[in-house]
Amino acid sequence: MSASHDVDIDKHVRTYITVFVSLMALTIITVAIGYLHLPIGQAVALALLIASIKGGLVASYFMHLISERKLIYAVLLSTVLLFVVLLLVPLFTVSDGTMIEHTGAAPAHTGMEHSSEPAGAESSEHPSGEQAQPPAGEAPPPAEAPPGGHN
Q1: How far apart (Å, rounded) are the C-alpha atoms in residues 48 and 26?
Q2: What are the phi and psi torsion angles at 69 (to 5°)?
Q3: Could you report how far apart the first and last alpha carbons of the chain are, in Å?
Q4: d(C-alpha 83, C-alpha 88), whole Å
Q5: 26 φ, ψ (degrees, to nearest 5)
Q6: What was the pLDDT predicted at 60?
Q7: pLDDT exceeding 90 applies to what percent of the chain?
Q8: Can you tell me the mean pLDDT for 68-83?
Q9: Residue 93, Cα to own-chain centre: how many angstroms?
Q10: Is the dihedral of CA 39, 41, 42, 47 positive or negative?
Q11: Degrees (nearest 5) of the Cα angle 76, 82, 83?
């Protein structure tokens, strides 16, 4: 082997070691962020930023994508566009009035519901959708066994 080939290999090994040390340092920083007791939003944003940097280092050097500029930018651009679209979807569902507010009330009966009980059977359910409570001092009725036999 020639001397220039050995120098080229040494250069690559130095690059890999530098990237590895950078990844270890970023991992330590990510763990340290957990001990800073930052507000959740800031901690998550900072952790995602560091994770993105680490992902970029791994993809660029260990996956040898650093020389694939045009393809990488096209994939990156499409990923960012899809990410932005997915972030905006909840905004449109909230702003167009389709978001259902939880009030704690039972849903209104429309008369379209079908009952699995035979006609004339008493239901333990109130019209409001809540289960009937036994009178004070009485034990609740025993649970029914599942169809087909034993528990």
Answers
A1: 11
A2: -60, -55
A3: 76
A4: 9
A5: -65, -35
A6: 86
A7: 28
A8: 88
A9: 19
A10: positive
A11: 85
Residue 53 to residue 72: CA distance in whole angstroms: 15
Taking Cα atoms as reference points, which of 12, 14, 13, 20 lies closest to residue 57? Answer: 20
Closest CA to 58 of 24, 86, 101, 83: 24
- Residue ranges per structural domain of the chain: 11-65, 68-96
pTM for the predicted model, two decimal places: 0.47
DSSP string of the chain, one letter each residue: --HHHHHHHHHHHHHHHHHHHHHHHHHHHHHHHHTTT--HHHHHHHHHHHHHHHHHHIIIIIS--TT-HHHHHHHHHHHHHHHHHHHHHHHHHHHTT-PPP--SPPPPP-S----SSPTTPPPSB-TTSPBPPPPTTPPPPPPPPPTTS--
By the 8 A CB rule, do 53 and 59 touch?
no
**Cα–Cα distance for residue pair 88/77, rounded to 1 Å:** 17
Give the separation between CA 123 and CA 112, rounded to whole angstroms: 17
What is the C-alpha to C-alpha distance for residues 17 and 60, in angstroms, rounded to an integer? 14
For residue 119, the model assigns a pLDDT of 54
* Mean pLDDT, range 10-35, rounded to an integer: 93
CB 43 within 8 A of CB 31: no
